[in-house]
Amino acid sequence: MGLLTNEHSRNRLVKLLLAHDNKLCCVSYIAGVVWFLALAYQPFNAGTYFSENALLPGLVESELPPMFVSALQIKDEIHSEMEKDKKKTPHAWIYKNFREIGLETYQQNFSLIYPFRSVTTQIVTGENVFSILRARRAASTEALVLSIPLRPLINVNKERPATHGGIALALALAKEFKRKPYWSKDIIFLFSDFDEIGTLAWLDAYHKTESEYIKANDLPARSGPIQAAVNLELPAQDVSYYNLLLEGLNGQLPNLDLVNLVVRLCRRERSQVAIHHSLEKRRHQYSDSHGESWDDFKLSLSTMMRMMWYQASGAPSGNHGMFHKYHIEALTVQGVVKKKGSHNDIITSARIVEGVFRSLNNLLERFHQSFFFYLLPATNRYVSIGMYMPAFGLMILASLIKGITLWIVCGDLKEKRALEAKKLKEEKEKSKDDKGDEKTDKKSESEDKEKAEVEEVLTKVKEHVKEESKDDEFDDDDEGDPNNPANQGLISITPIILVSLLLAWMAHQGPELMMRIMPKFRIHTEDMVIYSMLAIFTAAVMYPKLMIRKSSNPNLMIDWRLLKSIALIGQTLALACVALLNISQAFFLAAFMVPVTCSVWPTKSRVMRWVQLIALVMVSMLFLMFVVGLISAWPQTSTWDLIMKGYANTKHLIFLGLMDAYLFNAWSEMIGSAIIFPLWLLFWAVPWADPSF
Amino acid sequence: MVDTGENSIMKYTFIFNSCILIVFSTYVHVGNANHDEQVNEFFKSGHTNNWAVLVDASRFWFNYRHHANVLSLYRSVKRLGIPDSQIILMVADDMACNPRNPRPATVFNNQNQHINVYGDDVEVDYRGYEVTVENFIRVLTGRLPESTPRSKRLLSDERSNILVYMTGHGGDGFLKFQDAEEVSNVELADAFEQMWQKQRYHELFFMIDTCQAESMFQKFYSPNILAVASSRVGEDSLSHHVDPALGVYVIDRYTYYALEFLENVKPGSKKTMAQFFKVCPKHLCISTVSTRTDLFPRDVSHTLLTDFFGSVRNVELLTETSPLSKINTSSPTKVETCSKDTCKVMNKKLEKFSYPDQIPKILI
Question: pLDDT tens across A202-213, in order?
Fold first, then answer.
């Protein structure tokens, strides 16, 4: 108590802060980064456990027939069906077969209105097929969803693998599930077109909400609120391991209990399961210890980094991301085929899915017991928000310390300058008084002479005017004088803040405005987006030059300490807010931005100024996106190839980010352009400022 | 001389007859004493009727084993003689008809699914959301609203032996009732004290199978209570095994071994409570079974199991007759009236209470 209220000790604390602020900043930032990365080391994180008692995971034995012959037959059928027309998806086949089992099956049409439409753009239509298995002895008060994205064979690639094994599995499981009396929730089998867009259309219609660009028809029938969803992407061949994708929209993650459930059931069937293709050595999957070697740490760190990589983009890594918008816990299970070592056939997959659904059947409430904010360094280890927040807090503490220090220094300087100004004013008044006495004497003399020497008076007046003009020259010099009150305080930096906000608004709205003129130029949409962004960026970096007044001083006359202090505190707040929602995004932004923005300062030397400007450009949003593109393109044969592919990736990523913002209401684009960009622009003004302040 | 011979024969016969008479009379006297002893033994345990209050304080599918616990005990107690009219069964009853039950309308307590403990003759007195702490305490203390049917009342008297069995989720000093409330050990002790003061039990056997069960009987202070708990404070009571066909744990360890013991008990069995306390050693139960015997006046190794678990209706066939004393029914009872001043004095005279005799005077 006494530390902060006692004037004496408060002064001591402040003095300590001022004396060591640079050291504190460095130490805090480095400690934060090292601590955050060290959380992947096994002794620093915790093993996963089940918080929801009702789940009873894996206790019940599978009731599927041991040789699930029907699944294998259906798999062959669907494969031949899809081979018939590689461009289409087998809607009619699915509809017919589900009806034949006896389940309520429906179709839903939806259309996608392209956000950047012109006269020639068509409206794309799609069709979802879904089937509801009603629980025999329950009242349809809750539902579970098994979602399978429909992909035509020509669209299949490494990022979006084939899913027709999943279709066969769903049909076979539906036949089995229908015969059982122990379902307490309805099971909905959803087959969606166009991946996330179809899923969002179905969910919109289910919950009776509307999207701006996705128009969905009403659903002919529905069930109760959805408690959980599993998105299945299984190819028809035997699978080597199961890859889990967790990240949803805006960095949301499913409840950790659901993840643990899927991992436990995969292990029960002795199948390998991985987070983002990060395979663990066999022995680690069944033991919690032995994770303390350097190799283990590298593997854990790479898994955690991969998860953060996907989470930081704010884009969903699979269809399950759409369920997160409605607070429905969902994840994606992908089957990965490798050339050798694949022995998990469709029967194993069916048992895993059946086990997951039997456990979900036991639930009485929605998932609420386990963590919603976490990072996974392995399938059986987790880092919770309580573990990573202090580390992140240390990272942005550096920015906060610097901001507070600058604020205090600013205040001190203001007092000093006020004192100086007072002294100067006193001196000026003294000299003025003297001059004023002379003037009055002269005037009285002329009055006494009754205009005898009118010319004398005139000359005197001219002298007086010259002296006045001398004062004016003195006032001209004021513009370049740090002591001029117009160059101090909030008044001096308000224009900069307003300009940066204006430029941010332009960056946010710019691409859409540019899109209106796109058709006339006949350029590819992605190119147009990136050209518009580059144009706005280039215009934005010019603004300090435009704000320098035409005077002797070539630098910006602003109170740069106040500006930097406000910008740093703003940056701390912005990064803290982002961290609460999407920790990975905040971590990467903080890791790159904080060291550079804390250390910009105005210098006289041209070299240092250019170094600072280049460093600032390297942490700007566009450059960071370019780095992301380069890393995605890694590895390539030659450097030039890498740069080209990186540039192509960057264009694609920015375009997708924009589309996500329009279609799904993703926030990454807004955070980048409307929150981080104006803060960056404030820092951009600092190297241009006058160092004599 | 012949006269003396006849005299001596008569003398000898007389002596002989008197000897026989003496012997015979002593024999008869001894026989009478045995008979009295037999009659006394008839009323040795002190109780005349048995009641059982069986409570399962939890609900939901994943608490299947608590349900199975209490229903298995219900079966045993019924088999040993306590009728449904003297059993209060409080259970949430959401297992048999739960949509998640793969075998609808059944509850099993064993993986082999031999016995369906939820047969067709289970009478549940308090079901569903009626199993609350308030209802439980009201049943014990008898403070129920007038409209409560007889099947929901514990109509015990001062000669009743009551078995109270509780199972569910417990902690240090409390037992969780149906996810929304809890009963504390202090409350339970006070409820038993109320029962004692209202003379609602003769002897009470308290059996509890939850985690940290010992804490529930630590606060008892009423006489004639015998208690056994499945675990100590700080220990968890564990479940016994999973039924993979159902996907739940079907029974708890302590109750499983207790039931195993009770299966071998027949209505006339002479097994004692001391043997019952040894039923689950640590290597089987993993938690430590603890007991409370300080409030119980009798020796547990001489207390029959059927004193609490069964309702033994003793029938002894006596070939002798027992004399009954005459009851004076001629004198009319004096109706005393009092006025405002003398009522207090009269009431004071009538206030002397005493416990009724062990053996009713009517039989002596």
Answer: 999 999 999 888
CA distance B133 to chain A (A): 23
Q: Is B211 labeled as catalytic in the residue annotation?
A: yes
pLDDT of residue A478: 52
Buried b vs exposed e over A584-610: b needs ≥16 C-beta within 10 Å? bbbbbbbbbbbbbbbebbbeeeeeebe
Rounded CA separation B125/B52 (Å): 12
Tell me: pLDDT of A472 over 50: no
Same domain, A366 and A503: no
Q: What is the pLDDT of residues A647-686, one digit of tens each?
A: 999 999 998 898 899 889 899 999 999 999 999 999 998 8
pLDDT over 90 (residue A464): no
Same domain, A366 and A402: no
Sequence-ordered strand ranges (E) for A475-586:
none
Reported ipTM: 0.80
Query: Same domain for A321 and A207?
Result: yes
CA distance B205 to chain A (A): 32
Q: Do A59 and B242 touch (CB under 8 A)?
A: yes
Q: Both A590 and A505 in a single domain?
A: yes
Question: Of these residues, B169, B202, B280, B285, which one is catalytic?
Answer: B169
Report the residue of chain B nearest A360, measured CA to CA: B100
Instruction: Provide mean pLDDT across the span A479-499.
Output: 74
Partner-chain residue, chosen from A60, A136, A180, that has the shortest CB–CB distance to B247: A60
Classify residue A233: in a domain, yes or no: yes
Residues A272 and A202 both lie in one domain? yes
DSSP one-letter string for B215-279: HHHTT--SSSEEEEESS-TT----EEEEETTTTEEEEEHHHHHHHHHHHT--TT---BHHHHHTS
Per the CB < 8 Å rule, is B245 touching A61?
yes
Neighbours of A88 (CB within 10 A): 14
In a domain, A429, yes or no: no
| Interchain pair B247, A59: CB under 8 A | yes
pLDDT (tens digit per residue) in A580-600: 999 999 999 999 999 999 999
Domain that holds residue A373: 53-379
Q: Do A60 and B246 touch (CB under 8 A)?
A: yes
- Is A434 inside a domain boundary? no
